[in-house]
Amino acid sequence: KTEKAQEGVHIGENPPVIMATTTSTENSGLLDDLLSKFKEDTGIEVKVIAVGTGQALKLGENGEADVLLVHAKASEEEFVKAGHGLQRFDVMYNDFVLIGPKDDPLKIKERAGQDIVRAVTIIAVKKGKFISRGDDSGTHQAELKYWEMAGIAPQGNWYISAGKGMGETILIANEMLGYTLSDRATYLSMRDKIDLQIVVEGDSKLYNQYGIIAVNPDKNDRINHEGAQQLIRWILSEKGQKLIGAFGKDSYGQSLFIPNAE
Amino acid sequence: MEIVISNLVKNYGQHRVLEIEELKIARGSFCGIMGPNGAGKSTLVKILGGLDGVTSGKIYYDGKESSGDVYQNMTVVFQKPYLLRDTVFYNIAYPLMLRKVAKKEIETRVRQLAEEMAMEDLLYRKAWTLSGGEAQKVALARALVFKPALLLLDEPTANIDPASMVVMESMIKQANAKEGTTILLVTHHIHQAKRLCGDIVFMDKGKVEEFGEMREVIFSPRNIKTKWFMEGEIII
Amino acid sequence: MEIVISNLVKNYGQHRVLEIEELKIARGSFCGIMGPNGAGKSTLVKILGGLDGVTSGKIYYDGKESSGDVYQNMTVVFQKPYLLRDTVFYNIAYPLMLRKVAKKEIETRVRQLAEEMAMEDLLYRKAWTLSGGEAQKVALARALVFKPALLLLDEPTANIDPASMVVMESMIKQANAKEGTTILLVTHHIHQAKRLCGDIVFMDKGKVEEFGEMREVIFSPRNIKTKWFMEGEIII
Amino acid sequence: MREILEGCKQAIILLLSFDQEVYSIIFLSLYVSLMATFFATLLAIPVGILLGIKDFQWKNIVIRFVYTLMSLPPVIAGLVVFLLISRKGPFGFLGLVYTPTAMIIAQTCLVIPIITGIVYNGTKEKGKTVQILAKTLGADSRHTLLLLMKELRIDILTGIVTGYGRAVSEVGAVMIVGGNIKGHTRVMTTTITMLQSMGNYEMAIALGMVLLGISFTVNTILYYYQRGE
Amino acid sequence: MREILEGCKQAIILLLSFDQEVYSIIFLSLYVSLMATFFATLLAIPVGILLGIKDFQWKNIVIRFVYTLMSLPPVIAGLVVFLLISRKGPFGFLGLVYTPTAMIIAQTCLVIPIITGIVYNGTKEKGKTVQILAKTLGADSRHTLLLLMKELRIDILTGIVTGYGRAVSEVGAVMIVGGNIKGHTRVMTTTITMLQSMGNYEMAIALGMVLLGISFTVNTILYYYQRGE
Ligand SMILES: Nc1ncnc2c1ncn2[C@@H]1O[C@H](COP(=O)(O)OP(=O)(O)OP(=O)(O)O)[C@@H](O)[C@H]1O
Ligand SMILES: Nc1ncnc2c1ncn2[C@@H]1O[C@H](COP(=O)(O)OP(=O)(O)OP(=O)(O)O)[C@@H](O)[C@H]1O
Ligand SMILES: [Mg+2]
Ligand SMILES: [Mg+2]
After folding, report:
1. Largest CB tally within 10 Å, which of B33, B175, D216, E46?
2. Do B193 and B30 form a contact (C-beta atoms < 8 A)?
3. Each residue's pLDDT tens digit, B141-154
4. Helix/strand/coil for A65
């Protein structure tokens, strides 16, 4: 402990925690709100590195980050199973929405209703433009799951693999007047700047679960395990959960994330 | 080409380097320009060649003010020759190429000139490998090859060996005698001036101190400065 | 400084420009180097100054092969002078600054030299605004100011007016007579050679054709090439 | 550390695999950057030379402007081009967005000031001398320009190489206007960025090595051309 | 189109708002890029000059290598530095990752070849002449180097300005090693990229304008310094 204090940078202060998360989480503004309150409560600063899900997991695997907040449940569980992380906790969820042009040329809204699998089937059959994240992110993994459920291997000129973050993918869809799968938070934060509307929402398959994982402290001696644990406890606490639920009500009139820690 | 200079002034910043009220150089004449270092000889040549602007004053070529046509018909050989980054042949052929002379004829004329100037063996050398004197020869050849109406020469033989000097002087003289080229020659070499020039302009500190027939300016100058200068020259 | 050249060969690519079996220049002598353009004079000077490598052969300075010490004690004035992008004063003072001479003394010595060479008014001019002859004067002053043991001069007065030439020649002569500086002077000017040199090396096509006492080489050369060259010179 | 070494190994495997996708990415990178450099050169050489030899009012400001644009962030170049050619933009009707053409346009904008600046620098030094010489030998303005281009060829070459290097290594502009769309607008740098964001460091480094290998080849060829002098 | 004009307006509002966050981003940008340029210069000037005047075996290869690295993609520079200083990497014990120091290191690596290349180019042309002159006047190697630096000051300046321009406008390297952490490692280009990805074009362009405005100021100062000649 004294050794750490002697490093000089954070004397008399708690060392900062490095959190790796996805760009969609950061872009929504939730973390700014949440983590400044966490700092008030504990004096611990959280440094947020917003990267792709793949890189976030890699940063955890290599012990570069102390804690991960991501939304790719399958990969996360694998991550814990491989011993890279200690335990995975559900934090909150939001949901994915299928968005598309305002005039909905494929009439998906009428024809598919809430059914996301039916919606993607229609897109594939009609060869409507679909923009895929294509970057192995949580959203991309979810999208691939829907194609699989529909028994379709998406391929061809209509299926556009962008290899980009959420915001940019929405921008491409907006520009090409195509359909894409987005998390609700990112869509809402960009709603005013684009001509896209929600065409499918509310399907239970569209739930997007976020999990938080402390990185295995055995990886190296620079990992701030204590801070990570404190952060996890705080976020899962009643206070943290309430703050999550309240976020976005003022700007969007609805919660962007629904807390669901056990 | 006849040149008339009227009320020419040239300043570099605060520094006045030329101030010539009037000077008239007759068509077809061979006029030497002499004077101490820093007198403004090179500056005058540059201005006459249209390569530097004047602060005030006018210059008339055959009665007309300077224009593109006039510059097409004259050339300058600088004190420090600048050769194009190519072969010697290309350097000499370049003015002819500009004038759309046929390839065959260019070949002939360049070769002939090189022979007359005893520099055939240099023709396919790269220009930047030449010695100081060789470079001066090439620069002169490049100026002579297209037979301009006015030739402005700034110390063209300063680094030339005596044997080559004889050749070069005879080439310059020929251009004046045969083609009627008007020639202005800046030189520090009084014997050269005596051999070549019909008239002499003597300059000092930017001003024309004396202008007249060669024998008069050199042997019986009216101006005391000119006298001192020429006496020094003769001793040397 | 005594110089001994032994079996010197210099090629540029295929082109052999120097081939000197033996040449010995005595300490304190004043030796002229003459010869037609492209003879290899400048190349020889550059090699002696350690500014270009040899293809083969050896050079001994006071019996030793070239080393840093030797180069500290000699200097070269080039055919095309290169001045530092600063004032004339800085250019002349620079070798003294290198030798850690006190500021006061530098000031005095530079001013004195400038006066002797009649160029006080140039001292605070920027080097790149000088005329051709002025630049040559500065380059010579810069070489003389620190009194080196060996002075290699490559056509140092080619663009100099006659009055200044008298001054410069006397400065060079003085360095040889008073300080015992060994001097090699490349020149195309036979009268200058006559006035200054004790010995003459006559070169042609990279070879030393004749080497001996000045009067002998100029007036009664053994070699026919030398004879032709010198006769041309004398006429000019 | 391991990733770096592994990346080098992967680079070789990648090239030897003759994977069609990899080769089409490499090819598109070269195509886009070479075209952009080509178009930029057409404009930048005459402009750079004229800036170097002509005097005019506001010249100082124009030059400082060019120098400033030499450090234009690619993201901004990309964004501005994007806004102009996007569906709602003034040139939206051309349907250029997310095409290789758009990438060429954006990189051209980025490269023009770089080549212009370097050519101007070279011209400033000896351009006046060459121009004067051309005049004394009777060249008209067209021939003067040609002669200047010939005499300044080393500077022009440096400008082109630097401009190409900038184009081929930048990612901000092509990412925005091209969109990194698989099989259409995916080039080496956007792929590297994507791989990096996916945590696939080895492949990112491998592609980076390939990119540098290509630059090295280009430089070697130019080097032998230059040595002919 | 509207966004571009709006961006210009926002740029002014932004600057006049005296928003502390904006100013700290601007300040960090300048600090990181200036420090990187400074350290790179310390190494690049002597190396560039030595490459220009010395002959040695493998020189050609070294030079082509430097030229190649001039077009090193920032992402690759960032990634390699990241892997070296990451906790797991060989220099992990220094705890540099996601700090401004890391950003300075990455940009330094990026800028070194650029300044070296430009200085080398200038030296190649007249360096030999100056070196020879220095030798004939009795300068030792230290003084020769100083004289070369003095005579080549315009080329050196060009190199520094170009290097700084490259550093301040790149995003790939600082993004990876800095992480764009709010209040810590957020610089202008990473902010611009983030804003752009969120579709906030006006603010992205506004920040871009500020960046260019700063470059213009730097160029103007250097211009007046240079004109003193
Ligand atoms: N750019 C400049 N700024 C200031 N003074 C200059 C500039 N260029 C030339 N001068 C000065 O103008 C004067 C005339 O120069 P010029 O080159 O015409 O002399 P010159 O008669 O040709 O001398 P030389 O016989 O040495 O060649 C000189 O004193 C020179 O220093
Ligand atoms: N880099 C080079 N490549 C090929 N030949 C060269 C090179 N440099 C010089 N030469 C040739 O070497 C020969 C000697 O040149 P040098 O400059 O020594 O002559 P010089 O005697 O000084 O002549 P000048 O009286 O004209 O100054 C010349 O023929 C010249 O063309
Ligand atoms: Mg002159
Ligand atoms: Mg010579």
Report:
1. B33
2. no
3. 999 998 899 999 99
4. coil
Name, in order, each residue with C-beta under 8 angstroms of A78's C-beta and a sequence gap of 6 or more. none
Instruction: Report the CATH number at residue E45.
Output: 1.10.3720.10
The predicted complex's ipTM stands at 0.84
User: For residues C69-80, b (16+ Cβ closer than 10 Å) or e, as one string?
Assistant: ebbbebbbbbbb
The residue behind tokens 């400082």 is D64
User: Could you tell me where the DSSP H helices lie in chain B?
Assistant: 41-48, 68-72, 88-98, 103-116, 132-144, 162-178, 190-196, 214-219, 224-235
Which residue CA neighbors atom 6 of ligand 1 most closely? C129
pTM above 0.80, yes or no: yes
Q: Count Cβ atoms below 10 Å from residue E221 Cβ, excluding itself.
A: 10
Taking residue A133's Cβ as centre, other Cβ atoms within 10 Å add up to 28
Report the chain B residue with the minimal C-alpha distance to residue C157: B158
C73: chain E residues, CB-CB within 8 Å? 138
Report the distance separating Cα C106 and Cα C92, nearest Å: 9
CB C39, CB C203: distance < 8 Å: yes
Q: Dump pLDDT digits (tens) for B83-113.
A: 998 999 999 999 999 999 999 999 999 999 9
What pLDDT, in 10s, does the model give residues A44-81? 999 999 888 888 998 999 888 999 999 988 899 999 99
All structural domains of chain B with their residue ranges: 3-80+150-235
Total domain count for chain E? 1
Cβ-based contacts of C233 with chain B (< 8 Å): 162
Instruction: Give the number of other CB atoms < 10 A from CB of residue E43.
Output: 14
For residue C201, how far is its CA from the centre of ligand 4 (angstroms)?
Answer: 14
Domain B3-80+150-235 belongs to what architecture? 3-Layer(aba) Sandwich (3.40)
Tallying the residues shown for chain E, one arrives at 229
Distance between CA atoms of residues E158 and E118, nearest Å: 8
Helix (H, G, I), strand (E, B) or coil at E20: helix
CA distances from residue E51 to C44, D118, E39, E44, E224 in whole angstroms, order as listed: 27, 21, 19, 10, 30
Give the span between the Cα atoms of E44 and D101, in whole angstroms.
37
DSSP C127: G
State which amino acid sits at residue C88. V
Closest residue (by CA) to atom 18 of ligand 1?
B40
Full domain range(s) for residue E8: 2-228
The string of DSSP letters for E91-151 reads: TGGG--TTSHHHHHHHHHHHHHHHHHHHHHHHHHHHHHHHHHHHHHTT--HHHHHHHHHHH
Residue located via tokens 């939304």: A71
